[in-house]
What we know:
Arc Repressor Mutant, subunit A
Amino acid sequence: MLMPTVRIAARRLTRGPEDAKDALQVALLEVLRSAGSFRGEGPLRGWASRIAMRAVARFSARQYGAQTDVLDAVPEQGRWASTVVVDALPRPLSAYLDALPEAQRTALVLRHSLECTIPEIAEITESPVPTVKSRLIKGLQRIREAIRRDTRFGVASSKEAGG
């Protein structure tokens, strides 16, 4: 039951299928290496998922560097689809996420696409909870500002522009 969760995280936090496969392998190896530290205080699946997600996030950060984004494609289903009217945006949602600093983008993807809680994001990214909250708030503010700017200046989506 762990594989589908980690596979989804790897796909959403990496640039392509090959990187996703590599991240998945790194994550599963990390879970196996950490198996001796499982104390049985909670569900095994939750413990393993946190370790795997943290490993995928670290893989992405190492692979793409701090100034580079970790997600090229936002899933078309999931919480993004229910919280944002994706088709009504002037540009694809991934374009707005591309403009964010990596830390904000990762926090938003983990929260809204992978449905992680704020404490889980803090654990995965090894950041304090207030920092995660700040990244989420600032990331959403930047996206809203960019959408307003694009709407005001009439930026056409790639669909409308023929691309």
